[in-house]
Amino acid sequence: MYLSHLKKMKVKNTILIYSGGLDSTVLLCQLLSQGIETRCLSIDYGQKHKKELQSASEICNQLKVEHKCIDLSSLNQLFQNSSLINENDAIPEGHYEQETMKATVVPNRNMILLSLATAWAISTKSTHVSYAAHAGDHAIYPDCRESFAQAMNEALNLCDWNSVQLHRPFVNLTKADICKLGNDLSVPFTKTWSCYKGGEHHCGRCGTCIERREAFHLAGVEDRTPYSDDAPTIEQMLETNWKLIEE
Question: What's the whole-model pTM score?
């Protein structure tokens, strides 16, 4: 399904919104495998997990892809209600289904990222802006809704005399599907970064870590990610249906 979507859109060149995470790295490798000219854009918006930006840089260097990381960290003054930004707010732990994960919402983040990527696309005469939105993106993030993406695609087509289109080849895939695809593409999974806490290792307890671990398990792909010592084992997570049990 995703390959036919790529061919249908006839993508020749694109700006990829690239976090250095699992999903966007699989998309980067897929684009390159299809011979699509790709430039990667990462944004420092003041997030605690800046380690993802280091991962993005290292992977782009390894794959010899043009990469720009834009410093917009001063924007964190506008995002203080997000636990991903506010130093006084702890990153919530547990599965994404839990109400507490709403604390990780960064207001209007996707619109900001898409706008910047579109500006670079216009200046480089790229026809598309790509990002790794997928079927498992969560309703707690308003800017992950299909209606938002459709509206942004219309805006991208109108913001310049030359049309730019929004490219989302993973929109019908689950994160487990993306893991399987990444395994087929020999994606360097251990170089990717998902954890919201941004410590030395993935914490194995925040929403993105649990989602990552669940995806590898469902995909039947070995997860070689180093996790913190206090992270629950996969066996424990399976016993609790991927929920954290308070001690």
Answer: 0.89
